[in-house]
Amino acid sequence: MTKNLLSRINDLKQGFSKGQRLIAGFITEHYDKAAFMTAAKLGSTVGVSESTVVRFATELGYDGYPKMQKAMQEMIRDRLTSVQRIEVAQNRLSEGSVLENVLQKDIAKIRRTLEETSKEDFEQAVEAIAKAKTIYIFAVRSAAALASFLGYYYSLIFENVKVINNYGETEIYEKLFRISADDVIIGISFPRYSNAAIQAMTFAKRRGTKVIALTDSLASPLAAISDYLLIAKSDMAAVVDSLVAPLSMINALIVATVLKMGDEVKQTFGMLEDIWQDYDVYQNNRKDETE
C-alpha cells in the first residue's frame, strides 16, 4: 500500500472496535511519541492490551507492529505532503467545526510544548545568547516569519544580530562564513524540515558555534545537531503550518533574555522610548496640548 498511516486510519475508522479507536486517536494526535513506543507501551498508554495493538497494525494492512512503527517514524522525518495534509484535514474537520477545532488544537500544542521542552536547555540557551558575540538566526520558508520576529526584538537588545531567512545555493555559507565559537546560532525548522536549516546548523557546529534548535521533536534532524534543544509542537496534519507554539517559545526566549540582561536592557529601551516619542512612531493617546 502507498497510502500514509493517517489516511489508512481515516479510511477504516468506521469499522474500528472501541480499543482500536483509542489506539487510532492516540496515533493521530501523538504519532511523534507513538513512533518510539513498543506495542506494549502503546497499549498501556491508551488502556488496551499489547495484542490489540498488534492486531490494529494488521488491520491497517501492515505486516506486524514493527512495520507500522516504521511508518510512523517515516512520517516524523518526512511528515505529510501538502496534498496529504489537505486530505487529512478534509477527513477530520467539518466546515462548522474548523474554528473551534483549530484553536483547541493550538491550545493543546502550547500545553504539550510546556510539558516536553527541557527547562535546563531553555535556561542554558538564554545564557548562551546573552554571552554571544554575534547571534545568528536561521529560518526559511514558513518559519522565516519566526526568524523576523525574533530578530526584530533581539536587534533592539543586542548590537550584533544577523537574521538569515532567505537564501540561494551559496548564500548560506556566504552569510555564515565569519561564524565562530564566540557566536550562537538559533536554527528554526518544523515539518517539513528544511534542508537549508540542517546545512546551516551543521556548518555552524563544525565552527564550534553554540547551536540552539527550535523544532518539534527529538526525532527532528535538527535535534542531533543542537547543543540546546527547544521543543515546540507544530501541526502535523493540517493545510498550513501551525506556528502558535513556536511563537510562544520565542516570546519566552525574548522575555527571559530581557530579564537576564537586567538594567542594560532597561537603559536601551529607555533610549528607544525617547526616539519613538521624538519621531512619533506610535499613536499617542493623549490629546494635543494645543487643542
Task: List the keywords.
single chain, 291 residues, alpha/beta, Arc Repressor Mutant, subunit A, Rossmann fold, 2 domains, five-stranded parallel β-sheet, 5 strands, 8% strand, elongated
Give a structural overview:
With 291 residues, the chain is an alpha/beta fold. The chain folds into two domains: 90 residues, Arc Repressor Mutant, subunit A (Orthogonal Bundle); 166 residues, 3-Layer(aba) Sandwich (Rossmann fold), CATH 3.40.50.10490. Helices cover 57% and strands 8% of the residues. The chain has 13 helices and five strands. It has a five-stranded parallel beta sheet with strand order 2-1-3-4-5, sandwiched between helices. Strand 1, helix 9 and strand 2 form a beta-alpha-beta unit. Helix 7 packs across helix 12 and helix 8 packs across helix 12. The longest helix is centred in the middle third of the chain and has 19 residues. The chain is elongated and about 65 Å long. The model has no long low-confidence stretch (mean pLDDT 86).
Reported by name, the CATH topology of the largest domain is: Rossmann fold
Say how many strands there are: 5
**How many helical stretches?**
13
Q: Could you tell me the mean pLDDT?
A: 86
Low-confidence stretches: none
**Helicity, as a percent range:** 55-70%
Shape: elongated
Please state how the strands of the largest beta sheet are arranged side by side. 2-1-3-4-5
Structural class: alpha/beta
Q: What CATH first level of the largest domain would be assigned?
A: Alpha Beta
Give a quick account of the main beta sheet: strands, pairing sense, barrel closure.
5 strands, parallel
The CATH superfamily of the largest domain bears the name Glucose-6-phosphate isomerase like protein, domain 1
Number of domains: 2
**H-E order:** HHHHHHHHEHEHEHEEHH
What's the Cα radius of gyration?
Answer: 23 Å
CATH architecture identity of the largest domain: 3-Layer(aba) Sandwich
Question: Strand-residue fraction?
Answer: 5-15%
N-end to C-end Cα span: 75 Å
